[in-house]
Write a structure and sequence with these properties.
Distance between the termini: 43 Å
Strand content: 15-25%
Radius of gyration: 26 Å
Number of helices: 20
Amino acid sequence: MDAVYLFHDLYGYLMQMSPDIAAMIESFEGGVDTEETIGYYRDKLGDADPREFVEILVLHQVLLDPAEDEIEGMWAAVPIKGKWNVWQRRNDRLTIWTAWGDRPVQQVFLDPEETALWDSFEGVKRLIEMRHHVSDNDKLINLVRRLVHSDVQALKLSMMPWSMYAKRPAMAPPYLTSTMPYPSWKPGTPVPATPSLVDYHRHEIPDAEAQFDHLETTLSHLLRVPHPALHGKTYGQALIDALIERKAIPEGRVRVLEIGAGLGYVGRDAIARLQAAGRTVDYTIIELSDVLAVAQKARLGGVTGVSPVWISGDVLAVEPDGTFDLIISNEMAGDLPARQLTRADLGLGPEDGTVDRDKLRAIGGGAALAADLNINLDDAPAEFYLQAGAFELIARIVRWLAPKGTAVVTEFGDVAAWPKLSTHLDHPELSTHFGQLEQLARYSGLDAKTEFVIDLLDFDREQQGLATTRSHFRALRALAADAGIDLPKIGYTPELLAATMRTGTGDGLDLATIGELRWDKIEDRLMGLVPHEFKALIVRKP
């Protein structure tokens, strides 16, 4: 996404910057004249003053006086265990597993003395205090260096003890809880270009299963198995049951369109649930990715009584035959093209004013729809994303719905919040402004309502969910595989994970010996997702 991150292998600092700043840092290698170097970069960083950057970098021990002993400087710091560690304890020894991003899985073995040191890292004492109680100071500092390094990231060094932030975690420096899952990059080499969304989903998905298991796991993918949070139902089953209960699906023949069908799990279960409810099902899928279409066909190919039809291409460029009684757009609206604009682009002043509809119309596409239907954009921030592609999607749903037909559009986002860019993926993805989509649907003549997905699916909010990141779960899966256990990517509750860890070729694994396992209310965190952030726009044509 055009940003470069620097990870400090002695302290664990994580600093975001542009590539030209990274190049300036590299220019100090071997020792240079500071004033001369600042002068050299004075006109090369836009309007920024290179001296200010140098001062910040010195403060964070990125740039050093050549005479300074940087290892000696570590003793004043407090070792704090980094977030998202995966480890296994065997008697008096600890093994740490790491799998940052797409780097190879590795194990870091600690002997009994190192394990005792690990247990003593409680985020309270500085290293200089700890060395008075350790027989081998070299072993202490070398262990810290080993565990802080970007290959491991099990420790971070802080100038203040964690107690300073315990009651106010938001005040803690972000690097203390952040990780570096990104690929390595060398200054002087091109920064990978941000892919366009259409090109990404058409050409950049080489492995369908890995795409959803590792890279961009969806809520429906986590809940593709019968799940306690859904009272023993899958996501697709719960969705259809909810719509039938609301009388949103007609009796008899039901023509269904699914837009972007992932791996086909929702479609498989939707068809089966509709058939069980006495409906005859026609099922059409619009899919941009040929790789995902292959996975869908394999999953839906054996469904009895239905011969699904696939339309290959961009949903904003194709035109299916006929109309539909049910349209499902599940967790894909954030992948549609958007326009990055400013208030001035809409004729707005810095803080007030009314959108110039002619300027908005001139942008074209979904922006013209917003202009024609008078969508309220007056509260736009200084810089913002306009979800022109999502606007076009709603216009197509309006056209494709049969009379009394229902459409469900799910995605993460909010009713009143402008879209935010997610930076944790290898492609851009936006949260969704459901208020604007709801306005568009209503102004187009549909009945429209936005609600929480967890309410639509009748989530059991008393359940606990496993909290992970992509890298954390990849390491946990490797730990399980070492014991002969297959750990699929599903939304684990404590009971589901314990049961899975008892499978395999051996005696299984006791969760009490495994860390770091974090549990949260399932509506607040499930694996890497926040379920209560997912909304559903439900529209119906009169």
